[in-house]
From TrEMBL:
Its main location: cytoplasm. It is found in: Cytoplasm. This is phosphoenolpyruvate--protein phosphotransferase. It comes from Chromobacterium sphagni. InterPro entries: Dup_hybrid_motif (IPR011055), HPr-like (IPR000032), HPr-like_sf (IPR035895), PEP-util_enz_mobile_dom (IPR008279), PEP-utilizing_PTS_enzyme (IPR050499), PEP_util_C (IPR000121), PEP_util_CS (IPR023151), Phosphohistidine_dom_sf (IPR036637). Belongs to the PEP-utilizing enzyme family.
Length: 837
């Protein structure tokens, strides 16, 4: 007689009426593409765990979670239809990913009225996503009560799938050599941990005799890896093989870190530190260059008093979950106000820390011992920051500040104390023991002339943020700085790392003269930035901006940009589990269009992924050389459903602005014609025909055939970054070749000139939206070759406009003729430097 297959009962997560899954008004669920199960029309608003197990996935929009049981069965609960579009509004998670839960435990609260008003439907799906673990399934019918009635009765597959999931041998990767110059410091560690979390398997990163939870950014940083270290990945679970393959590739790709992006470790004995403190001067490490004169304002961190004993496990757990959620929302609000990708990346890492499984495990251990949420959380983040500070790697020691920053943010919420904002008077020189990266990101450069911190160094996130804000800064200043009297006038030299605490009249005058010289130049450029860009003899050149979203568009316009020459639509597709809907995309494109108005052009590039820009929900085949495989328009033509949805969404912005649609990575006329045919069909269906169509020139074939493409497009936009790597056959991210992959190489410049010649013959205009456009030395050269639009980074708008105003068109053309006759990059750069104005 055979053994009886094990059985698992799935409880109702909500009260309400059961509905067959195939009647759900969503083809993905009704077609059982996610898995089989049942739907429920709810009458309650507190989601209970339908089974006991581990929360293996908690969606970032908090409308769905998956629990993996001890038997290996994955049960997903998805609240409502299209609720991902609510972006978390009305949902309040009570658990964290990686947390063990019991059946009937409250896991997500949601405002049933708010969600019901804004979602397509409240129908909630209870689905088994790994059907191979189930032999048979019986769904209940009628009315059910949350946490009490069984909605699905599962007969498991004789435990075989379970045994494979739980008892199979762990898989181990081959050695992987760390290629990141600074090892797996904060940002690559966060990328690696985030990817690891997408797998249900238990995953460890191994270095010699040490190992770390691969899903914990703190643990990965704590390994203190260095360039050249050999690591291995061990995974145990149903998707172990896939996890090892993808994480190995991620490490081989340096977790997306490009050459030059890694912070450099500070020298053991910086030149500035050789100077000695004196009665007139204190010395630290120059963290952000520049000179500032101001008066001292001290900033001291608040203390938070939290009780040791808690009020009960569930109460403290819910308090912690809500505080962590609110902290993440606060960080997101700060990020939304920033345009600098470097600053946004630092704060994204802070958000990753809030979901760090090792930090959460320590916290939940404290809660299980009866401690309050504040006490348990403080013990957890304090232990981890101390662990990083004990590392030999100075980069990792400085990351302890990031953990403390995130920790204090949550602690303030748990203590019910509003953290004091940095409200500073104009002309301040801020002095602090420590300054949180999030506080630094929010500093107002018009009021804060500079700052000093006793802790940190030139590679700290505080220093990185100071440089991005253009604020002179010193880290590692003497303890004596904390005792200087409030309001004392000082001179801060961020280049040399010195703080003059008793400047005399001559020193003040010299500093003021240098500050005035730099300020005058910046003011002149800013003043002219709002004027139409033109050469000295009045020939118009459009200086527009490269942006990602509506906030970027508003900032660009405020800084003088005359429109948008490149809207990178990828930002809508990144960092999510599913492709954005047509409505989501349309809302963003229209917001950008409204920020520009009807008189400014908007060039939207269709989805450009593949190569070094993968999407988790758009799996592409593994390629030996992804840069020569499915990229750009090739991906869109391979997935016409995505292309059609995106084009319909973009076209909704047509009435609001001067809309241009641009296809990336076009290599042949066949590709262009296929993409245009899809666009024409969508234009006919929506009636929006007043749209210009162009292509990116990134592939040499497009430049060579520009005269053939020109009759079939309205414009060209040259992406110099990719064009350079394809013309020179050099990966622009290669650690040895990156310096040689120079857009000023004569071959690249001749490709640009060839594109301009082909376009000019048919009366079409050419823009440049790659990095070369933002180089003010190259601006007159490009104009001389025939480029009539420069799409630049927002900070470069003023300087590029000012440079063009110093050249006549004839001089630009002569410069182009001279440069195009040169044979080496060295000659080109020397010539441009000699003729810089």
């Amino acid at each position: 007689m055979g053994t009886t297959a094990p059985r698992l009962d799935v409880l109702a997560p909500l009260s309400g009426w059961l509905v067959p899954l195939d009647s759900v008004p969503d083809p993905v669920f009704a077609g059982k593409m996610v898995g089989d199960g049942v739907s429920l029309d709810p009458t309650s608003g507190s989601l209970l765990a339908p089974v006991a197990g581990v929360v293996s996935n908690l969606h970032s929009a908090h409308h769905a979670l998956t629990i993996t049981t001890a038997e290996g069965v994955e049960v997903m609960v998805h609240i409502g239809i299209d609720t991902v579009m609510l972006k978390g509004e009305g949902f309040f998670p009570l658990v964290e990913q990686g947390q063990q839960v019991s059946a009937g435990q409250a896991v997500i609260d949601f405002d049933i009225d708010q969600v019901g008003r804004n979602a397509a439907s409240l129908l909630t799906q209870i689905i088994v996503t790994n059907g191979e673990s189930v032999h048979s399934m019986q769904a209940a019918q009628g009315m059910v009560h949350a946490g009490r009635d069984v909605v699905l009765s599962l007969q498991l597959a004789n435990g075989q799938a379970v045994a494979q999931l739980q008892d199979g041998e762990p898989k181990l990767s081959a050695d992987i050599v760390i290629g990141n110059p600074a090892g797996l410091h904060a940002r690559p560690a966060a990328v690696f941990a985030s990817k690891a979390k997408s797998f249900s398997s238990d995953i460890q990163l191994l270095l010699a005799d040490k190992e770390a939870n691969a899903k914990s950014v703190v643990a990965v940083m704590g390994l203190a890896t260095k360039l050249g270290d050999a690591v291995r990945i061990r995974a145990h679970g149903g998707d172990a093989a896939a996890a090892i393959a993808e994480l190995t590739q991620l490490l081989n790709d340096r977790c997306g870190e490009k050459p030059g992006e890694a912070p450099q470790a500070p020298a053991e004995a910086p030149i500035a530190i050789q100077q000695q403190d004196s009665d007139k001067q204190l010395v630290g490490v120059g963290a952000s260059p520049g000179i500032a004169i101001g008066r001292i304002v001290h900033h001291r961190l608040q203390e938070f008093d939290v009780p040791e004993q808690g009020k009960g496990g569930n109460i403290e757990q819910q308090s912690f979950a809500r505080a962590a959620e609110e902290a993440a929302a606060q960080i997101e609000l700060v990020k939304a106000q920033l345009s600098d990708p470097a600053k946004q990346a630092i704060l994204s890492m802070h958000q990753e820390l809030l979901q760090d499984p090792d930090l959460l495990a320590l916290t939940y251990t404290g809660l299980a011992e009866g401690k309050s949420a504040g006490w348990a959380w403080r013990a957890a983040f304090s232990a981890y920051s101390a662990r990083l500070e004990a590392q030999d790697n100075p980069l990792l020691r400085e990351r302890a500040n990031d953990i403390r920053d995130v920790g204090r943010r949550v602690l303030a919420l748990l203590a019910g104390i509003k953290q004091a904002a940095l409200e500073l008077p104009a002309g301040s020189i801020l002095i602090a023991e420590d300054l949180a990266p999030s506080d630094t990101a929010a500093l107002d450069p018009s009021k804060v002339m500079g700052f000093c911190t006793r802790t940190g160094g030139a590679t700290s996130h505080v220093a990185i943020l100071a440089r991005s804000l253009g604020i002179p800064a010193i880290c590692g200043i003497s303890q004596a700085a904390l005792k200087l009297p409030e309001g004392r006038q000082v001179i801060l030299n961020g280049s040399e790392g010195t703080l003059a605490i008793a400047p005399n009249a001559a020193e003040l005058a010299a500093a003021e003269q240098e500050i005035a010289r730099l300020a005058e130049r910046r003011a002149d450029e800013a003043k002219g930035s709002m004027q139409p860009a033109a050469t000295r003899d009045g020939v118009r050149v459009d200086v527009v901006a490269n942006i990602r979203n509506a906030a970027d568009a508003r900032e660009a316009v405020a800084k003088g940009a005359e429109g948008v020459g490149l809207l990178r639509s990828e930002f809508l597709f990144d960092n999510r589990d599913t492709a954005p809907t047509e409505a989501e995309q349309a809302a963003e494109y229209c917001a950008v269009a409204e920020a520009l108005g009807k008189d400014r052009p908007l060039v939207v590039r269709t989805l450009d992924v593949g190569g070094d820009k993968p999407l988790s929900y758009l799996p592409l085949p593994k390629e030996d050389n992804p840069f020569l495989g499915l990229r750009g328009i090739r991906v869109s033509l391979d997935r016409p459903d995505l292309l059609r949805t995106q084009l319909r969404a973009i076209l909704q912005a047509a009435p609001l602005t001067q809309l241009h649609i641009m296809f990336p990575m076009v290599a042949s006329l066949e590709e262009l014609r296929a993409a245009k045919a899809v666009l024409v069909e969508e234009q006919q269906s929506c009636g929006q025909h007043d749209v210009k169509v162009g292509i990116m020139v990134e592939v040499p074939s497009a430049a060579v055939l520009a005269a053939r493409f020109a009759p079939e497009v309205d414009f060209f936009s040259i992406g110099t970054n990719d064009l350079t790597q394809y013309v020179l056959a050099m990966d622009r991210g290669h650690p040895q070749l990156a310096k040689q992959a120079d857009a000023l190489h004569p071959a690249v410049l001749n490709m640009i000139a060839m594109t301009c010649d082909g376009a000019r013959a048919h009366g079409k205009w050419v823009g440049v939206c790659g990095g070369l456009a933002s180089d003010e030395r190259a601006a007159p050269l490009l104009v001389g070759m025939g480029v009539s639009e420069l799409s630049v980074s927002t900070p470069a708008v003023a300087s590029v406009k000012a440079t063009l105003a110093r050249w006549s068109l004839a001089e630009c053309q002569q410069l182009a003729n001279d440069v195009l006759a040169l044979s080496t990059v060295t000659d080109v750069r020397h010539h441009l430097n000699q003729h810089a104005r």
